[in-house]
Write a structure and sequence with these properties.
The protein is of the alpha+beta class. 20% of the residues lie in helices and 24% in strands. Helix 1 packs parallel to helix 7 and helix 2 packs across helix 7. Bound molecules: flavin-adenine dinucleotide.
Length: 439
Amino acid sequence: MTAAADAGADVIVVGAGSSGCVVAERLSREPERKVIVLEAGAGAPSASSLRLDRLPIGVGSDRVVHYPSQQGFDLPRGRGLGGSSAVNGGYFVRWHRADFDGWSPQMWPMSAIEEAYDHLDGGSPGGGVMNVSLFADDELHSYAHAFEKYWQKQTFDTGTSPWPDVGIVRVRSNRDGWSRHSAAGLLEKARARPNVRVLTHSQVVGLRRAGGRVNGVVVGEQVLSADEVILCAGTLGTAELLARSEVVEIEGVEVWEHREQLVRFTASGGRPEPARALLQSVLHTADGVEVRCYNDDFAQFIDGLPPSSPAFGVALMHPELSGSMSWDPVARLRVDLGEMSSEDEHKIRRCAEQVVSMLGGDDFETLVQPGSPRIEPVIRTSQHAWGTMPMGVRTDWLGGVGEMPGLRIVDASILPTAGSSGPHATVMMVAWQIAESIA
Ligand SMILES: Cc1cc2nc3c(=O)[nH]c(=O)nc-3n(C[C@H](O)[C@H](O)[C@H](O)COP(=O)(O)OP(=O)(O)OC[C@H]3O[C@@H](n4cnc5c(N)ncnc54)[C@H](O)[C@@H]3O)c2cc1C
């Protein structure tokens, strides 16, 4: 810890990533509520690491920690103020309305969900806390242009509403070219308040309990007390902390992921034009697949990756099977991404084959070397892990851990269902709405 914290606080927020910054900002609006934010990593990211066309997650980046997975994939997660919001792909898209079926309608009425999203993404005109809007037609990369043209011919519409649906989804992102992270949008405002302390380089290593409730955290040699501890350490960080503290049994707990298969191809006529963003357009199919039009080889976005070739992604957004977590005090957290059901394997394969056929067709004639599209055999991950402590099952509908008063979880761990879009906007929406409800 770089600064001595006072003896305690009303609320301690663990982790200053996508969710933690939202929670800290909302709860600290009440001047009498003392809030301490503890972040394991460093301060704000440098401006250069926030270019929308870069993801600072390569080996050697000080903005991420890498978790191993049983499958051998590296699972990088943002570290430092902004957390994963400062290193992610910048795609900020709401879930479909139908994805909230099964959420408690009393605690999560659609009107409240919409209002929270509106604050973050600015609704139809765009803007909001995260300064996101739809890429315009003349900003699209040639791959995204051809992609949309192809799917329009297959009778899919291009949606421009803030609520995506089945069809072509134009991505919302930071069109000015600089990723807006949660600390910039929210924490900066909060830390100017006298009732807020933000402590970086402050990794919480344990939760303190007394009288059957959580009443503080351990950071290095120091114990900080609070009436409530709110875990916003991300799905993997929170699971690690719960396991380390022996507060919740992590062994065998489900973890969900959007598995993805890539279709690679060789660009015709040398390198494509530079991409202003990783993703500008995706397709959402009726059977729950997201087809991602990446605008270039990943090596162009991530330092240290060996050059390969451009790719399209086919991601299963509503997987039938989960992976699981386990805890080994020596080997730390073990993440097993699990198997796919045979139905899901067929679904992803069918869609990948259609992408191969798309790349061989007229719309990509000038962009793709004939005969080059190929389906990668490995099924990867989207880095979206969620749902280890789902609301309505392992926590209440506001993230409270019933068997452990004083403890609440408000990060991607508590998403209770799968979403048809990436999780970032929804993780922040959930944090916004919970903070509003408990403030
Ligand atoms: C590389 C990458 C690309 C992605 N791209 C997209 C995308 O384009 N669109 C999309 O929708 N989603 C994307 N995601 C997913 C999305 O960014 C995450 O779902 C979301 O940011 C998770 O927010 P969170 O608050 O749960 O955790 P995080 O934002 O990861 O925040 C957790 C914070 O807690 C801190 N922390 C962890 N443990 C401790 C501890 N013990 N003590 C103190 N602090 C701790 C961490 O350092 C971190 O700052 C991406 C994720 C990654 C990793």
